[in-house]
Design brief:
Blueprint (H helix, E strand, L loop, with lengths): L7 H47 L4 H48 L2 H18 L3 E6 L1 H6 L1 H7 L7 E6 L5 E6 L4 E6 H24 L5
Helix pairs in contact: 1-2, 1-6, 2-6
Length: 213
């Protein structure tokens, strides 16, 4: 599969989403840590009360009970933080996808250049005299002539445009080669997800938790 090139516009959008996420992540983590502190304080109070009950059982039993109660509170903290982080990641990626869908529907020169570049790269790399392009309804209606013009000069004898069930981007099919290149918006989001999660960990969660960044 050809490499999907991420435009400067998409990088700027990702940076914008990350900046908005930082404040929210800090607040979410702070709330989770406050909850954890309350759990640990409650565990400490309960442990202290248990100490009086267990004093006759010896100091070692008291220490074990104390460690057990505090460890349970710490485990609840970790689980709550992980759940909050997962929710933030899902929400941000959903927001990013919705914004990308909106921008795809708006179209524009940069978006069209990205579609054309993906199609030309696929055809130039793998060849094929017949090309089928799967596009959203909006792109099919507004870019029909542009795609025919974009492939002029290439060894393409037949090009067919079809409406695909995608919100944006393009899927390039080369029937005589038995190949398909998925440059649709959902596929782009899937391929971006690992790097987005890494960026969130490095640029949002680490600063919110007092790490570097």
């Amino acid at each position: 599969m050809t490499e999907i090139r991420i435009s400067g516009d998409l990088r700027a959008l990702v940076e914008h989403v990350l900046r908005q996420a930082r404040e929210r992540a800090a607040r979410e983590v702070e709330e989770a840590e406050k909850r954890a502190r309350e759990l640990i304080q409650r565990a400490e109070a309960e442990a202290k009360a248990r100490e009086e009950e267990l004093v006759h059982a010896g100091l070692e039993e008291i220490r074990r009970a104390r460690r057990r109660l505090v460890s349970q509170a710490e485990l609840e903290l970790r689980e709550e933080l992980l759940a909050r982080k997962a929710a933030i990641v899902e929400d941000l990626i959903s927001s990013l996808e919705a914004e990308l869908v909106r921008r795809c529907r708006q179209g524009g020169p940069e978006y069209l250049r990205g579609l054309v570049a993906f199609v030309r790269d696929a055809v130039a790399t793998e060849g094929g005299t017949r090309v089928v392009l799967h596009l959203s309804r909006e792109d099919l209606e507004r870019y029909r002539d542009e795609f025919h013009h974009a492939l002029s000069g290439m060894d393409v004898r037949e090009m067919e445009l079809r409406e695909g069930d995608i919100p944006g981007g393009v899927v390039v099919e080369l029937p005589n080669r038995g190949l398909q290149f998925d440059g649709s918006l959902p596929q782009i989001i899937r391929e971006l997800r690992p790097s987005l999660e890494k960026l969130l960990a490095e640029r949002v969660f680490a600063p919110a938790e007092g790490g570097d960044g």
